[in-house]
Amino acid sequence: MAHNPLRVVSVEENEPAPATSQTLLEAVESGDILAIMKAQRRIIAESLTTAAENTRPQYSNELNKLNKLIAEEESRRSVQAADDSVVAPLEVEAWDGTGY
To answer: Is 0.85 topped by the overall pTM?
Structure first.
């Protein structure tokens, strides 16, 4: 059995792949509320950089609201994933001492 020599991994090989971001239309078509909110957040963040001075507070407020909603949805999904990880829900039964 031949062993492969160890080598140093380059920075490019070690970096995670960039997350694919959906457009708002793609997110709406998918029906995924989290993807929709993230697409909306991206649009607002891009608009905030070029917005007129008098509209920046509105964009900023909407961005803050979306950030809160996204965090809540991610938390809800995390809790749901933890709840769904149960292998099999079993009825609780009193052990009658008769073995296995």
So the answer is: no
